[in-house]
Amino acid sequence: MTGREAPGAQHGDRACLGSRLHADESRYDATVHQALEEQPFGPVTVLYGDRRGRYPHGNTLIVRGRDQSLAIDPSLGLVARGSPPRVDRVLHSHCHEDHFAGSFLYPEAPWLFHESDLPGIRSLDGLMDLYGYPEPIRSAWSRAVVEQFHFTPRPDAVAFRGGDVFDLGGITVEAIHAPGHTRGHCFFRIEPVGLVYLADVDLSSFGPYYGDAWSDLEDFERTLAMARDIDATYYATFHHIGVLEGKAAYIERLDRFAGVIADRERRLLEFLAEPRTLDDIVRHRFVYRPQDQVLFADGVERRTMSLHLARLGRTGRVREPAPGLHVRAAA
Hints:
About 30% of the residues lie in helices and about 15% in strands. By secondary structure, the protein is of the alpha/beta class. It has 2 domains: about 15-260, Metallo-beta-lactamase, Chain A (4-Layer Sandwich); about 265-330, no CATH class. The strands form 3 sheets. The chain has a 7-stranded mixed beta sheet with strand order 1-2-3-4-5-6-7, with no helix packed on it. The relative contact order is 0.15.
């Protein structure tokens, strides 16, 4: 999703649930506010979504080789452009609504997903299980992904794995498994352009989103450590940032992005100076701001902070003085 101006602001990909469905409405703002830009990098063209891919839009990559071409993460920005570019295959970084919102424009082309995310595109129930929202949110979100993000089940979707290379003829696209956001989330390295597409490691100030049933905090941290070692000329994101040139600018953004995890944990430990229940933690808000009226907020807070609590419990930094109560352990 979009980059956020400050931690806790309701912007961002899976982080921007507030922009998806608010408590008093069932539609997101899909208005195109600016002329849609595009930026070529040799055989790669970045087709920017509205406001550089602010959610619900995103930035789609078109990669053309001598023999074949593919689209990476067709977005609502692609839909807004009208006639889509011709491609032979559709490659997805992961199975989330904003990343397949334009894929329906390619009904005849093979759709490719990492094998771990494949169940999410094969059926609507599979996708809802990936998110893990309880009722009545599950039913409302089911309608939204169909009506607003053009979800089309593809039982014939093709699986790939990390390390797989797609040879387009003089241009290669390598999948780099980067889980945490989802189980199958991937980066893509495009050579000889020297461009790495980071998908929803979007380098925003909101920080990493790991609030779905198929998200994992410690997988995300391993992905971020791996990401620091990626050398490239260009680093592209699906939301906001667009394309950064040079590793120094990339590392500066990446470290700020990753630092949000430690900040959430620090604030949680401060809050646990006295015993609290998980409901107390959810109400306090560590992902969203207390004033954000977001339909999904409680579920996201519960999943996200449960992951932090579990880790803090394993490492002895938080204890349970009574069932269901959590308190910071004495130093």
